[in-house]
């Protein structure tokens, strides 16, 4: 049973340190699964860890976390070659696609090289819920801030643009993020956008923002837009605690 509208939950969370496994999925990922509307069977969740180089250990940790949560897991890898013949078919067979953090620039480049960008759009339109953390949040937007190129953050402006906004992640935990996100929007390099503290996420239905949610007390979300004088305004949004 797919989601009743194209759905993206873009987050700075959804996964945490585990007690018996390296990681555990947390409330934001559970919410993404709930949004898919699956009932009567284990949710099918496909992982994409290309932003982390399709690292086998990272994928193993995601599979362990999925088993702990009762998900039926699969993955799409692009290094050294795609691991499936039919990428679109794999994605369409899922309830949720969960995209890991890492290099958003590398993720976008490899996605376009292998047609994952078009396959993601098809799956999204078909009701497969798209979610993820960090790079796996920025990718759905028109752009954001990234450390893909080095320790000094830089803009990325060639996101998949499923939604027409920019995205700021780790807004409260990495000191460069907030001022650069604001500056890039103020000067017009990035369009207006939504930013999330660690543990927060923003939900879109089709291309519209619907709500802000969090899995951690005190985690906030923000909307940043430019002003006519080249400045910015930053509004803290009502954020529902999951």
List the helices and strands and how they pair.
Layout lengths: L6 E5 L3 E3 L5 E3 L1 H10 L7 E5 L7 H14 L2 E5 L10 H6 L3 E4 L4 H10 L2 H10 L3 E5 L1 H4 L4 E4 L7 E3 L9 E3 L8 H10 L6 E4 L3 E6 L2 E7 L6 E6 L5 E5 L2 E3 L1
Parallel strand pairs: 1-7, 4-5, 4-6, 6-7, 8-10, 10-11, 13-16
Antiparallel strand pairs: 1-12, 2-3, 8-9, 11-14, 12-13, 14-15
Would you give an account of this structure?
The protein has 242 residues and is α/β, with parallel strands linked by helices. It has one domain (7-241): Rossmann fold (3-Layer(aba) Sandwich). Helices cover 26% and strands 29% of the residues. Helix 2 (56-69) links the parallel strand 4 (44-48) and strand 5 (72-76). It is globular. The model has no long low-confidence stretch (mean pLDDT 97).
